[in-house]
Amino acid sequence: MTAELPYRLIATDLDGTLLRSDDTVSERTRAALRRVTALGASHIIVTGRAVPWTKHILDSLDYKGLAVCAQGAQVYHAGEHRLLTSVTLDRQLAGLALAKIEAEVGPLYLAASRDGMDGDVLVGPGYRIQEGPLPAIPITDAAELWAAPLNKLYLQHPGLGDDGLAEVARAVAGDLVGVTMAGPGIVELLPLGLSKATGLSLAARRLGMKAADTIAFGDMPNDIPMFAWAAHGVAMANAHPELKAVADEVTTSNEGDGIADVLDRLYAPR
Question: What pLDDT is stored for residue 33 in this prediction?
Answer without folding.
Answer: 95
